[in-house]
Write the structure tokens for this entry.
Amino acid sequence: CHMCIHEEMLKDVVRTRSYQNVITQNNFLFKDKIVLDVGAGTGILSLFCAKAGAKHVYAIECSQMADMAKEIVKTNGFSEVITVIKGKVEEIDLPVPKVDVIISEWMGYFLLFENMLDTVLFARDKWLADDGVVLPDKASLHLTAIEDAEYKEDKIEFWNNVYGFDMSCIKKQAMMEPLVDTVDQNQIVTNCQLLKTMDISKMSSGDASFTVPFKLVAERNDFIHALVAYFNVSFTKCHKLMGFSTGPRSKSTHWKQTVLYLEDVVTICEGETLSGSMTVANNKKNPRDIDITLKYAINGNRCKVSRTQHYKMR
Ligand code: SAH
């Protein structure tokens, strides 16, 4: 359903209200400025910017939704301020050489899935004025570990015996696909660790591929069935720092969290460390897909394991 994704995004109040608050509470960023809305969808961010006093907003959208955005802009009386351009950011001609502000909601599952970040960086390098701002300008990826016996049983072990048949070959596939779902904060066993911060105003496309170490320290005695990744975004150019988190301790969003099941059930005691590294890279064949390699090890009282696992988001 074509409307559905936009309906889901607009009804995600954590997401949409954050952008609205950033824009309406920081008029100084928009007043009399030229704004570029990268991937405008229904045009909601452009409308917020126009209301905040932007001189002109260019709303670029490649899908059919661009036609709707045009009509929405007209219906709401912003035709003089907002120009909707239907096409790919990488292919369109912008009527102005430079813009003061680039605003975009480009984040995917696991932050980087679907790789729209490249489109924002492309727009930044091509059109952003030297003293221009990108909103949001910071995005960070975080990791924690959870107890998840019940759901792992349901999603993974299920394939061992399906109406009496062994379908365990599917189990390998299921293990490799990160699961996008909401995690209950009571399942969290360790601390939450920052893996990577990206500065959207300075980074290059290659910075979205990386290997980073982690050390997760248990806050109680428990089992670990999965690692959980989530992201935060922030708008540091506001009067006061603004942003939101998609973590399990925050109000849930349509991005939920990303669950990576472990081959081993790790028994961990309070104070012990599960350490390792995570490698994230765009798939060579299909750059919209993400390859994740997880290395983890524990040398604890109850459990000693060391393993490397590969995952693919698609
Ligand atoms: N800004 C809207 C929509 C965000 S979803 C909102 O906040 O509600 C991202 C949008 O970007 C989608 O509508 C998608 O069609 C569009 N998009 C993705 N890649 C694009 C590209 N390369 N050029 C133009 N639009 C793109």
